[in-house]
Write the structure tokens for this entry.
Amino acid sequence: MTSRDRLLAVLVAVLWGGNFIAIDFGLGHFPPLFFAGFRFAVLVVPTLLFVPRPQVEWKWLLGYGLFFGTLQFAFVFVAMHIGMPTGLTSLVQQASAPFTVLLGALLLRERITRLQIIGILVAVLGMVVIGWHRAQTAALLPMLVTLCGAFSWALGNLCSRKANPPNPLHLALWISIVPPLPMFALSALVEGPAAGWQAVASVVDSPTGWYALGGLLYTSLLATVVGSGLWTTLLRRYPASMVAPFSLLVPVVGFSTAWLVLGEQPHPVELAAGAVVVGGVLLGSLNRTRRTSQRPVEGAASEGTSLAGSGEALAISREIGTSVASPPQFEDRP
């Protein structure tokens, strides 16, 4: 992975780490399922009017929208609504990294090394410790719901890899057409048909409404469009097992911002177990990263194994590098 792409991966981690604060603000005013659908609904009309449909198979677009857009955020929003701390949510969500590596090996036949297996086992051990501690405080259910969100994120990563879009930013925008209808339907059944729209009508009449509006803009534009657009770009260029570990920076940002903005103090046991999780998945990524840096020609093809050669790698680099670096292209991720 090039130095510039590493910086882009770090930028995604920063955007997604701050996203948990935005979600917390949004949940202070909106019902969780409604808010999860509303964050994508605001993007649907501009996307349909101004963004060309990505040239990918519908099954992968719908799969990416279902797993990454719908199920992941439904689980996360509900988990935070029923008591999952903001900082801890950003950590447990990173279980998507070992999930992605395992699913990539099982379903896409990506190579998995012994070091990656050891790292995954270490990360799972850390998650077990967090789960045990949560069970002692009668708060295990929010963590399990968050893990469901992490697993959905991993499935979405694989759908993105299989889609292999010519323009990843278009795919990141077009997945917004999937979540609103199922989310609003679930919201009507669980939260009541009028609860969400009443919250929308009162958004400018209360302090929580203004915070929620800021959270909505952040999570829709910065986290979803910019973050997901860059993430999809990186997944197109490199194996899922190489990109996924960068998400481990998300809890660093998540814990830091939750402490600074919300005053959350993580329990020492959960903090230590979180360090084990991060260390485990980093351990699993070191060998792959080193070997790839020694052989820059061997990136990831659409099937997740290797690029055909340096010429294809250069072509993809130029195509995506232009779309990310050129200012006019940022219209694709508002």
Notes: Confidence is low (pLDDT under 50) at residues 287-334. The two ends are 26 Å apart (CA to CA). The chain is about 75% helix and 0% strand.
